[in-house]
Amino acid sequence: HALRFIREALPDTIILSTIFSPLSIARTLAGDQALVRYLRENPEDLHAGLAIITDVTARFAAETLAAGADGTFFATQCATMEYLTVEEYEEFGRPYDLRVLMSAASGDLRLLHVHGEAIMFDVLADYPVDVINWHDRRTPPSLAQARELTSVCLAGGIHEWETLYKGTPEAIAAEVREAISQTGGRGHVLAAGCVVPADLADERMSAARRAVEA
Predict the structure, then answer these.
(1) pLDDT of residue 112
(2) Pick from 141, 134, 144, 136: nearest CA to 111
(3) Which among 45, 75, 120, 199 is least buried, having the fewest CB atoms inside 10 angstroms?
């Protein structure tokens, strides 16, 4: 219902609906440590729960496209080695992620946001998405390193809290130029690594835009 209002108000703007990965939803429902305990002590029960969450999330993703979204912003908060092992994410994250992403295949754009530090970029680099976004100013890989790992469009290059929120216009412009130099400006959308602060001053966003255009 909200998406229909947004689409009516912004007919020419690209709108992505935020969809969280099934394992991230399970983490929110169960709690950080409880999910890890279930994963390691009751894996069959967790798989059963993830199947239900995945079915609901996949249908929700498809409905957001029908309601006017152009695509999806698919976010995973568990693909970090500070939380799980690669083997655990391969079993409890990846197969359910892919089912949700396939349900959003009819959209014009699928953007993957990998949240956190020490992320499992290699594990997710072959996901069926058009753009990958992560905290490239806080955790490997850098934009240049990621460009060697995937041909998918990369979104990143500016630190949302330190540079964009606190930095001078000159510091913002310098970070933008350095980010673009890492990719040569090809297959790269200049973006923050995560959510932009809600009270970010308009002139700071404009400074980043001017630096890109320059």
Answers:
(1) 98
(2) 134
(3) 199
pTM above 0.90, yes or no: yes
Are 15 and 68 a contacting pair, CB within 8 Å?
Answer: yes
Q: Determine the Cα–Cα distance for residues 78 and 118; give it in Å rounded to an integer.
A: 11
Specify the pLDDT at position 199. Answer: 94
- The answer to whether 20 touches 72, Cβ cutoff 8 Å, is no
Plot region of 195 (φ>0 → left; ψ -120 to 50 → alpha; else → beta):
beta
| Contact in structure between 46 and 131 (CB atoms under 8 Å) | no
Residue showing tokens 């996901």: 127
Output the furthest CA–CA distance in the chain (Å, rounded). Answer: 55
Positive/negative CA dihedral, 7, 12, 13, 19: positive
pLDDT value for 186 = 94
Which parts of the chain sit beneath pLDDT 70?
A: none
105-111 contacts: CB < 8 A, separation 24 or more? 106/62, 106/65, 107/65, 107/69, 107/70, 107/71, 107/72, 108/14, 108/70, 108/71, 109/14, 109/16, 109/70, 109/71, 109/72, 110/71, 110/72, 110/74, 111/16, 111/71, 111/72, 111/73, 111/74, 111/155
